[in-house]
Amino acid sequence: DAGVTQSPTHLIKTRGQQVTLRCSPKSGHDTVSWYQQALGQGPQFIFQYYEEEERQRGNFPDRFSGHQFPNYSSELNVNALLLGDSALYLCASSLQGRSYEQYFGPGTRLTVT
Amino acid sequence: KQEVTQIPAALSVPEGENLVLNCSFTDSAIYNLQWFRQDPGKGLTSLLLIQSSQREQTSGRLNASLDKSSGRSTLYIAASQPGDSATYLCAVVDSNYQLIWGAGTKLIIKP
Fold first, then answer.
1. Which DSSP category does B30 fall into?
2. Among candidates A17, A78, A81, which has minimal Cα distance to A47?
3. A44–B44 C-beta distance less than 8 A
């Protein structure tokens, strides 16, 4: 049984560019949440997707957007990248209504230069 | 607004010692509290989950306690080993079912 997978593992982008990160949830899970973790900090909640819709959102600008596909996989898109967007981006999956039991992927390390 | 604080930010102890990591939160209206482990550059591994109605949970050499009224949790690690070296994060699930995280304690166990 595959756990949560994320791609790519590492990514280097230039300021102003756009990036797309991908996540496949744990088998049987239907809800995907995205987090940003800056170096030396705890993760910060970006948003959560269920039934292909954004259900909750943290305090992140509209440059951060997402999508969930019918197979429950998800993408995180960041436009107009800033240096401050450099972080580890974590995806977590869960069952709807059981967001208190999330399973995390290994993350994507994004570096913006 | 829920805030989670972890003290100390870093800890270095000799192998074999027992140790305690601390986590505090400002709003006692939580659904549960979780302790996670994060190895450098890696994702998060859930260690223990304590429901709001529980006082403690144990897994092997790990024991986590929860005092909701005082807004505190501790993670006790017995007989520490070099393989325990990692960053330990505490997170609470708030009334919006969101995980609110502390910044973590970086633990180094010296052989």
1. -
2. A78
3. no
Nearest beta carbon to residue A105 from set B43, B101, B103:
B43
What distance lies between CA B36 and its chain's CA centroid? 6
Residues of A within 8 A of B32 (CB-CB) are 100
Instruction: Report the number of secondary-structure helices (H) and strands (E) in chain B.
Output: 0, 11
The whole-angstrom separation of Cα B54 and Cα A3 is 28
Q: Are A49 and A22 in contact (CB under 8 A)?
A: no
Q: Cβ distance A26 to A104 under 8 Å? A: no
Nearest to A106 among B42, B101, B102 (CB): B42
Q: What is the pLDDT of residue A1?
A: 61
What is chain B's pLDDT, residue by residue, as a tens digit (111 residues)?
899 999 999 999 999 999 999 999 999 999 999 999 999 877 888 899 999 999 999 999 999 999 999 999 999 999 999 999 999 999 999 887 888 999 999 999 999
